[in-house]
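step: validate -> pass
step: tokenize input -> pass
step: predict -> running
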Amino acid sequence: MNEAVGRLVERLDGRMPSIALVLGSGLGGLAGEVEDAVRIPYAELPGFPASGVTGHAGEIVAGNLAGRPVLLLAGRAHYYEHGNAAAMRPALETLAGIGVTKLILTNAAGSVDPDMPPGSVMLITDHINFSGSNPLFGEPTDRRFVGLTEAYDAGLRAAFEKAAQATGTKLHKGVYMWFSGPSFETPAEIRMARVMGATAVGMSTVPEVILARFLGLRVAAASVITNLAAGMTGAELSHQETKDMAPIGGARLATVLKHMFSEGFD
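step: predict -> pass
step: emit ->
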């Protein structure tokens, strides 16, 4: 990890962003809007993951977004790719090591709420870890007992809501439920998720939230809704549907994020 920190500091050439943004499906175009950008392939940074998911570039983009210094992670590793919930730990440890204090996570998700259709944006207020795994398995210190009562930072959530209101973007709020994937959920699992209080379901983000809180980072997260979950429409789900619909909600979320960055937040 120290080697990755050194290499990243060298490549950043004096840039000192305190905010990092993980780009999920539908947000990849945001990397092209970064000004004065430096691009660093994950392959150049020891411990960084090689994403095997189409639409995930696998590089860091650092520069200014809407006038604010930021570091974007274009691509993430998913638990379902390797069975390792801690796959993003080296990357997040490196971010913390260079002085990042705030992490904004984005993802594509399925809606459990018929009033939150594809193309919607949902601010995550809490999560349910239904995967049976945890990225802190094997952590030898008592730091592994991370409190998650305030996993999603109230101040960052307020900045999200203010930016959504200012841009006229409808911002849903709800609970994200993490399933391991890669297969989609069954209709019975979705009925269960609804009973348990989930608003959306997906296959990422929760491990990163746990790791970020373990590292002392403030966290906010938002989902781009790409489909109604299994059994809600009678149609079969597909990853192609995710790729087709993600840019629609992604454009709305990008608008909110850029306004949020332009206005500034603590």
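step: describe -> Residues 239-263 form the longest helix (25 residues).
step: cleanup -> pass
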